[in-house]
Amino acid sequence: MINLTLTVLRHGSADGDLLIVGPSLGTAVTPLWDGCAALLDGDVTVVGWDLPGHGRSPAHDEAFSIPDLASAVVTATRPVREEHRGRTFVAGVSLGGTVALEVALGHAAETGLDAAAVICSGAHIGSPRDWHERAELVRRAGAPVMVEPSARRWFAPGFLERDPATGTALLTSLQHADSRSYARCCEALAAFDVRDRLGTVGCRILAVAGEADNVTPVALAAEVASGTGGEAVTIPGAAHLAPAERPLEVARVLSRFLGPGPRLTGGRIDGTPPARPIWRPDMTDDPTRSATLADGFEVRRAVLGTEHVDAAEARTTDFTAAFQSLITRYAWGEIWTRPGLDRRTRSVITLTALVARGHWEELALHVRAALRNGLRREEIEEVLLQTAIYLGVPSANHAFAIAQQEIDRSHQESQP
C-alpha cells in the first residue's frame, strides 16, 4: 500500500471548493505549489500530496503504477473531500499531471470530480527506455545526480536568477528525495500511456503547457486537450514547473477554468497583459485598440516564443514602432485570437501560405511555431507534401530542407 502525506497549502471554508494538487518527479509539493495556491481566486482549499519518498511522504521501494498512485491519492484525500461541500478539482505537474489525468479517467464518479488540470504533462511522457535508464542511474548514484540536469530542464532561462529562493527550494527537495522511491516513480512513468483512453475521461480537462518546456512540450498538452475535448493553454515564459515559475499566470488560468467568469478562449489567458509591451502609451488612446494590442502580444509570445518576440522588441525603433503595432494588433490581436479556428489549423494555413510566397525565413519561424502549437513532425510532413502538388516540387523541396533543420534544432533543444 502506498502512503502519501498531505499538506494544506491554503485554507478555505467547508462550503468552498477543494483543489487537490500534485508535484513533479523530484519535487516536493510545497515549494512547487505554495505561491500559486495563495494567488487563486475565490473560496478554495488547496491540499497537496507528496510523491513516495519526496517531501513529507515516506519512502516506498515496491513497484507501483500511475493508476496505483491515483488510487492512493483518492484514498488519502477521502477525509478532506468528505469535509467539503463545494466542488472538487485535481491538478498536477508532470508526474503529478499524469496522476490527475488518471484520477479523471478512473475515479471521477467516485470522487465527484468536476475538473482536472494536467500541467506540463501528457498522456505519455518520454520513452520507456529513457525512464528505465534513469531509474538505474539513480539507484546507483543517488537522487543528487539529477540535480544539475534538472536545473537545466525544469526552469526557463533567467528564472534561477530572478527567484533563487524558489529554485533552491525545489532543487533541495530533489537533493533529499529517496533514491529508490525516485527510481520507482521513473518505472511508473515508463509504463504510463493512456492515449487510447482519453475519450473516456469523466470530467472537464484543462491541459497547461509551459512555452519553454522541452520535457513535456506544447504538443503533449494539445494531444490531451484534443483527445478529451478539453482546453489547452500555454504559459509564456514558463518551462517545466509552471506553477513555481509563473504562479500568477497559472493561478489566473486555474481560477478562470475552475470558477465562474470569462472562459479561456483560443488557447490564451483572457485579460492577462503582456509582460513587456513594446508600444508607447501615446501611440493610441483608444482602449479597444490597446486591449487588442495586449491580446496580440500575448498570443504572439505564445506562438512565436518569448525569446523571438523579445528580440523583435529590442530591435524596435521610432521608425518601425508603428509597423510593429500594426502587425501585433491585426495579425495577432484580431486574426490569431479568433475562435473559429484553433492554432494548429492556423499553423497549417500559415505554413502553406509561406511556401506559396517563398518567404523562407518566415517559414523557418513558423515551423517552430507549428511545433509549439502542437503540430507533430508527421503532420508538418503532410502539409509540405500537399504543397508539392499544388505549389510545385522545387518550392516543397526547399521547404522540406528548412523544416528538417528546424525540427532537428527543436529536438536537440529538448535533450537533457
From TrEMBL:
Region (Disordered): 264-286
GO molecular function: peroxiredoxin activity
AB hydrolase-1 domain sequence ranges: 32-252
InterPro entries assigned to the protein according to its UniProt record, in alphabetical order: 4CMD/NDH-1_regulator, AB_hydrolase_1, AB_hydrolase_fold, AhpD-like, CMD-like
Source domain of life: Bacteria
Domain Carboxymuconolactone decarboxylase-like stretches: 322-404
N-terminal signal peptide: none
Protein name: 3-oxoadipate enol-lactonase
Organism, as annotated: Intrasporangium oryzae NRRL B-24470
Classification lineage: Bacteria, Bacillati, Actinomycetota, Actinomycetes, Micrococcales
